[in-house]
Amino acid sequence: MGSLRGLRQVAGSYFRLYERGASSSLRLTRNSALKRINGYCAKPQESPKAPSYTYSHRVPLHKPTHWEKKILLWSGRFKKEDEIPETVSFEMLDAAKNKIRVKVSYAMIVLTVAGCIWMVIEGKKAAKRNESLTSLNLEKKARLREEAAVKAKTE
Questions:
Q1: Which whole number is the average pLDDT over 99-121?
Q2: In degrees, to the nearest 5, what angle opens at C-alpha 127 toward C-alphas 126 and 131?
Q3: 3-class state of residue 87 by DSSP
Q4: What is the pTM assigned to this prediction?
Q5: Beta strand pairing status for 40-42 and 35-37?
Q6: For residue 77, is pLDDT > 60?
Q7: Where does the sequence pass through the membrane (predicted)?
Q8: Are 78 and 86 a contacting pair, CB within 8 Å?
Q9: Is 44:32 a contact under the CB 8 Å cutoff?
Q10: Strand, coil or helix: what is 63?
Q11: How is the chain split into domains, by residue range?
Q12: pLDDT class for 106, splitting at 50, 70, 90?
């Protein structure tokens, strides 16, 4: 246990020496964005002011492609292609795409349920004709054996 404690102390002192050298370079490179307080780096307490790179209140606009115009029409956002403005917001385009995504999902659900119902109906029709997968496979194998026997005789 004693060696572990000594190892921690050596590592801690080495880290503090390294931190002193690194913190001075941090202060120089980041224009005093970080300052040293009790051996730790912390952000300075300054009055909140808006940085120069803040998001402006204008919404960024996007010129829709032909496909995006079709999406805007299918989603019901616009009635005619002539009504679509030259530029639209990304939010409007995302909302239209999400609406189309939901409609496609509903259509896939309906097609899946319809396919299941259709397969049940076809299975019941086959059961009335006394057809099963087993009987169909046995008939197919018998046919293949006959063809193989005929082919073997001709050779």
A1: 97
A2: 65
A3: coil
A4: 0.47
A5: antiparallel
A6: yes
A7: 104-121
A8: no
A9: yes
A10: coil
A11: 2-42, 61-154
A12: very high
43-74 pLDDT, tens digit per residue, is 556 555 554 554 456 667 889 899 999 999 99
Element containing residue 105 per DSSP (H, E)? helix 90-128
Contact 97, 74 (CB under 8 A): no
Query: Which residues sit opposite 61 in a β-bridge?
Result: 89
Chain length of the chain: 155
pLDDT at 145: 92
Task: Take residue 155 and report the two structure tokens written for it.
Answer: 């050779």
Neighbours of 93 (CB within 10 A): 17
Q: Chain centroid to CA 22: how far?
A: 40
Arithmetic mean of pLDDT over the chain? 78
* Cross-strand pairs, 88: 62
Residue with tokens 């009335």: 128
From the list 108, 104, 99, 103, the residue with the least C-alpha distance to 78 is: 99
